[in-house]
Amino acid sequence: MPTAAAAATASLRVSNIPPSAVAAELLAFFDSAVAVAGGAFACEIAAAHRGWLSRGHGTVQLGSAAAAAAAAGLASSGRLPRFLGALLSVSPSPVDLLPRASDLSLRAAGAGLVVGDRVAERVFEAADAWDGVRAEVIPGKRRVDLYLEHDSQRYKLEVLFEDMKDCLGCTLDGMGAILLQLNYAPRIHTAISGPAVNSRFMDDRFHACKEDAKFSWVRALDFTPNYSFGRCSTLVLKLGKSALVSDILKSLPFSGNLGELTMNSMDGVGASSNVVPLVHCPRDYSVPYEVLFRLNSLMHMGKIVAKHVNADLFKALQELPVDVSRRIFEKMHKLESTCYGPLQLSNRRLIA
């Protein structure tokens, strides 16, 4: 799996830029000169302050790392055409202007995203779903960016590699998919724009981008009606093309292949409270606070799922001495995977 140090970017440092040049011209130049692997994507010419004179150097982000390598090869061999009469100096840039997958095979447009819980080895219960999702795997930053729209608002979800408990290839409704079981909820951002927003790519001489970049991403709260991202622990990304799934899995902390996944609708998402704890003891039962605390801890750690924290489980725990339930919880905390049968585990311990 690529590391942050080894991952190539799709950007180039460019110097000897004529003072009169504007970013749109430089972007068009590289787009024409490197008509492979996506051409050019974005451009920034350095200036001391916004609107000041050019410093004669800048950064061009190509459509892919392959396109950047092609442009660098043209420059090193003297085959890169002159730009407004000037011979440009080109070298690799360690960072991209805009976060984006540097390999075309690590991008997926028109994907489907489902958030929910894995309630059995190959059974998934869905809480919310979106179509038209764009997925970008960025090995250099060790994360997956997911772009979607909800109620006409744009959102970006960042899923860090280190937050992935399991990353499994699977099929869903005959389509290739990736199941991500998470230790922590994705980082949620929303797009804001307007005259008061200081976006890096505003309309000026020294910035140009093929896509709309006149906005800023800011951290946002869970936007789903039932707070699904905070209460559920699993994402399923439906990609469709098996070749694309295999390419993406090569760049993720891959855990294995799951096979065919069955998806059902979730009856309810967690508890009625908008804040932790995630679960509450039903009215007909009474358990010590320690038991409730440990159950919530197991939920947060992904050791158990909300579906199985039900009246039957509370009935069994109510009948157990605290020291016995404590030993059960300690055993569950040591599990390396999710327990899909906490009631059976409690009953076996009770019999023992």
From TrEMBL:
Signal peptide: none annotated. It comes from the Eukaryota. Residues 11-88 form the RDR1/2-like RRM domain. Residues 113-257 form the RDR1/2-like PH-like domain. InterPro entries: PH_RDR1/2-like, RDRP_helical, RRM_RDR1/2-like. Residues 277-344 form the RDRP helical domain. This is Uncharacterized protein.
